[in-house]
Each structure stands twice: as C-alpha cells, then as structure tokens.
Amino acid sequence: MSDKIDVKDRPLVFSGRGVTRVFGSGAKANTAVDHVDFDFHEGELVTIVGESGSGKTTLSKMLLGLLPVTEGEISFMGQPRDISTRKKQKEYWTNIQAIFQDPFSSYNIFNKIDSVLLDCINMRGGKNLPKEEKVRLMTEACSFVNLKYAELTNKYPFELSGGQMQRLMIARIFLLKPKILLADEATSMVDASSRSTILDMLLKLRDETGMTVIFITHDIGLAYYISDSVYIMEHGKFVEHGSADDVILRPQAAYTKRLISDVPKIHEPWDLSEYALKL
Questions:
Q1: What is the rounded CA–CA span in Å between residue 35 and residue 38?
Q2: What is the pLDDT of residues 223-272, one digit of tens each?
Q3: Distance in angstroms between the alpha carbons of the first and the last residue of the chain
Q4: 9-39 burial, b for 16+ CB within 10 Å, e for fewer?
Q5: What pLDDT is attached to residue 267?
Q6: pLDDT of 154 over the 70 cut
Q7: Computed from CA positions of residues 110, 112, 115, 120, in that sequence, does the dihedral angle turn out positive or negative?
Q8: Which residues are within 8 A (CB) of 200 and not within 5 positions of it... i.e. 6 or more apart?
Q9: CA distances (Å), origin 240, targets 148, 153, 256
C-alpha cells in the first residue's frame, strides 16, 4: 500500500461545485453526472470508484475539457476554468494529461514512437533544443519506465505489447510533467504483473513531480491500495468520500458496503449456493 499523505493544507488544483452533465433533453434527458462537488489538492492521489454507468468516465471527460459542463462550475488552480478558445485549451492541456483504458487506441498509428516523444518535448517548450539533448530526454523518459529508447526508435506503437504501450504513455507524462494526471481504468487491460509495474511507476512519478493523480476505476481494492482520498460514485452522484481508510474501512453508504462485499476474500470460503440452485 502506498504511503498516504495529508493534503488538507496543500493548494487546490481542481474543485467543482454542482457539476452536472445532462445528455439529451425533455423526456429523453439523461443526467450522467448529477450536481457533484469535489476538491482535489496538489500532490493528492484521488480515486473515483463506481460501476459501469455510474458517471465516472463522463466526469473525467469534463475534467479534461472534452465535454462541456451542463450546470455548475469547475475551478482550476483557484480560478474558474476558462477553456473558451483554442489557445486557452492548449495551455490547459499542457497542465492536465490522461492515460486511458485502451492503449491501442491512444496513439496515431501513423506516428512513430520518436514522433510521440518529440511532440511532448515540443509541448514543454523544447522545440529548439539540440538533437542530442532531445535524444537524452527521450532516453531518460524511456529508462524511467524500463524501456530502452535505442530499441524503440523508428518503431510504431502498435509493434509494442499492451503493457509496453501503457509504459510509453507514462514516459510521455514523464516528459510533459503536467500538474494533473487523469488515469481512466489505465491498468484494466494489462496482466497483473504489468498492472503492478505501471502502478508503481505512476506512484513514483507522483512522488518525484508532485503532480495530482486522479484514478478512475471500478476496483475498490485498487482504490484502497493507492489512494489518499476516495470518492464513491453511484448513478451520477458522489454517495461517499473521504480518506481511503475512512471510506474503505469505515464505509457509511450502502453502495460502498456492497462494493466492498463484492471483493473476493481469499481467507473466506466462497458461498456458491446461489449458483448451485440454478444448476
């Protein structure tokens, strides 16, 4: 389990009040995110937990600025977020980056790995750096995630395994050093060994850069393992939030208790009577 930090006295990087997203209108209106409030601090590792359809991915897209907010307000670095122009969007996206569930759809298949990494260097103002310095930065970023740049140069991302592609995404984050990283089910499509490695890399990156990491997941066990704070989401609402210890060890909401009870416990016999009756 990662070392928990007390974030109460740290500056806010993200906050939301009454944040809502409605799809459709009239009788066909569907409220995916329903008047949620949140405060995410500098260097905090936050996990938003919920089942499929709970609204967590819709919220993540609003945080990224990929979906407009129907109602409510999101503040960034203590000020109302303004992404009303392309220039402001670009500036915003240098400070918030994402790693998504499917590594195979996260890359442009026509761009080689060198181009993927060089784009990150350029975004951080390194366009005019000497070639040797760019190679050094790319080598360092790949080494951070246990990849060898010399073995990746001139290759395409699809020539890598899923785990390697996710690690390359973390190498991008290492180069970009955003203030906020949003990881939406970032480890759900890799095997257990790769999952552990990727989580350790993300935690190390958080510790080294002080960035805020927001995990989006359905895995409440993972939430307890990595998080400083946990938000539990059901039907578009936050039904419970607090420190990982408070939420997971002393849950109050019935939904939280059900999520915890659904986690298999290896030291307890499994009750399969319900399924035996159906056979």
A1: 10
A2: 888 889 999 999 999 999 999 999 989 999 999 998 888 766 655 554 55
A3: 40
A4: eeebbbbbeebbbeeeeeeeeebbbbebebb
A5: 53
A6: yes
A7: positive
A8: none
A9: 43, 46, 8
Sign (positive or negative) of CA dihedral 66, 72, 78, 80: positive
DSSP string, 231-246: EEEETTEEEEEEEHII
Report the amino acid identity of residue 132. Answer: E
Predicted local confidence at residue 193, as pLDDT: 64
- 3-class secondary structure, 157: helix
- Contact yes or no for 231/38 (Cβ under 8 A): yes
d(CA 53, CA 59): 11
| Beta-carbon-side half-sphere exposure of residue 183 (alpha carbons within 13 Å) | 31
Residue, of 24 and 4, whose pLDDT is higher: 24
| pLDDT bracket for residue 44 (50, 70, 90) | very high
Burial class (CB in 10 A: 0-12, 13-18, 19+), 61: middle
The single residue listed with the structure tokens 């740290």 is 10
Q: Which H or E element spans position 16? A: strand 12-23
3-class SS at 76?
strand
Q: Report the relative pairing of strands 180-184 and 30-41 from DSSP bridges.
A: unpaired
Amino acid at 164: Q
Q: List, for residues 165-216, the tens digit of each pLDDT value.
A: 888 888 888 898 899 999 887 666 556 666 677 778 788 888 888 899 999 9
Helix axis angle, 113-123 to 131-144, nearest 10°? 110
